[in-house]
Specification:
By secondary structure, this protein is mainly α. It has 5 helices and no strands. Helix 2 (21-41) packs across helix 3 (48-61), helix 2 (21-41) packs across helix 5 (75-90) and helix 3 crosses helix 5.
């Protein structure tokens, strides 16, 4: 499966968050990648919307609660990640 990466818009980040942008992106990307692996292994024909919701749920469960609460990925990008997971699961 292709590597999933989370990019934060630094224009929307506070000055403190901008200083932590790189490690925060790495942490969010890692959580999303782990979620994709878990969801791919447990995929049973769900729709892209259902997979996207599951990706977000699993990713947030592995983050610190404060980070999880603030993690609101772009819906279109999350659905693209869901399609990547579905394709990988179908080709496995």
């Amino acid at each position: 499966m292709q590597e999933l990466h989370v990019s934060l818009d630094d224009a929307q980040l506070s000055p403190a968050a901008q200083k932590l942008q790189e490690p925060l992106e790495a942490q969010l990307s890692s959580a999303l990648q782990r979620a994709a692996e878990i969801v791919e292994q447990d995929y049973h024909g769900e729709s892209a919307d259902e997979v996207a919701a599951r990706l977000l749920e699993v990713a947030k469960s592995s983050l610190h609660p404060d980070i999880a609460d603030a993690f609101a990925p772009d819906r279109a990008e999350l659905e693209q990640a869901a399609r990547v997971v579905i394709t990988a699961a179908q080709n496995a």
